[in-house]
Design goal:
The protein is mostly helical. It has three helices and no strands.
Length: about 70
């Protein structure tokens, strides 16, 4: 599988995801380099969304960092 395409570092990304989706906890977005699939699987279960929806959402939230800067 392809890696997530993130426009910022993961620490900033985690905060953005938590703000964008209040039902997520810190544990839900706990991620380390190379664990993209684990993160996607976890978010799919937690958010009841498809893989494509989760990947699109995460990358969309990430892309807002470049617009806000």
């Amino acid at each position: 599988m392809n890696k997530l395409q993130l426009a910022c570092d993961w620490e900033k990304m985690k905060q953005m995801l938590l703000e964008a989706e209040p039902q997520l906890s810190n544990e839900d977005v706990d991620f380390a380099e190379g664990q993209d699939e684990d993160l996607i699987d976890s978010l799919m279960r937690k958010l009841s969304r498809s893989r494509e929806q989760v990947v699109g959402w995460v990358e969309s939230v990430s892309s807002t960092t470049t617009k806000a800067s």
